[in-house]
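Q: Second attempt. The first request was missing the SMILES, so the protein and S-adenosylmethionine are both included now.
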Amino acid sequence: MDKIHVPVLLKETLEYLNINPNGFYIDCTLGDGGHSFEIFKKLSKEGLLLSIDQDQHAIDFVKEYYKDSIKENWEIKKSNFSKIDTLIKQHSREIDGVLMDLGLSSRQLEDSYNRGFSYLEENEPLDMRMDEELGVKAKDILVVLSEKELTMLFLKYGEEKYAGKIARAIKQNITSIYTVGDLTRLVYRVVPAAHQSSKNPSRRVFQALRIVVNDELNSLKEGLDKSFKLLKPKGRICVISFHSLEDRIVKDYFNNLVESGEGLLLTKEIIAPTDQEVRDNPRSASAKLRVIEKI
Ligand SMILES: C[S@@+](CC[C@H](N)C(=O)[O-])C[C@H]1O[C@@H](n2cnc3c(N)ncnc32)[C@H](O)[C@@H]1O
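A: Got both inputs this time. The predicted holo structure:
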């Protein structure tokens, strides 16, 4: 299998992680392993990299793709990064750096193992679980929630202007919604033409469902807080986010650490991809990097 995902803000992330070759680093979002591999290459035999992903398909891909490079000091584990404290219990050392490159990988969008992450994959079922051991799929949410609850969900997690109209149409047509295409066609019917800009009108609905299925925002809050507590002084956390809900959580958490005197913000100005990176990799367009250092 080939690599699909192009790592975003790679050069900038490596610079900010400021890697100590003997240090202990955690990549919370392994994906196709692009960031992890570059971090690993900078480590000596005494250094250690732990890479985490909650998607077993990402773990399987990286273990096969990098099989000739993976050594004892590159550990790869399937887990949600909100459990980072339990994962590192066996290592009696503090962490030098943590990376979170949030959201979905290009592999999950283009080769999803029939999980319907992308609104372009019309024939896939509405599943959206990154971790297939999770109990609730996107379709279950559409069935179980009331019209009012769905409206709130699309408003809160999708910031979708037509949340109410979309929720009503979903509940009225629930018996005929099975696939990605069933949902995207319904959204096309409901959302007024004026709203149908160059961006797909289902974008926000899909974002909202994915956030809830994977409990993304709570995992982020928990993962950030646990990571910061486990960092050694001068250790750093780099977070790359892709939408305003994630970015707000990171920004507020980092600002609180600055106010309490525990953290030093290294990115007073947000780090965004260069025009060249966006041209080469359009998926990087909405990326924002924020970095904090523990005092
Ligand atoms: C944008 S991709 C990372 C790409 C990676 N940096 C690379 O260079 O290939 C995000 C990855 O993080 C994983 N992920 C997202 N949220 C997670 C969480 N809470 N815990 C563990 N993995 C998560 C996803 O399954 C996905 O594979």
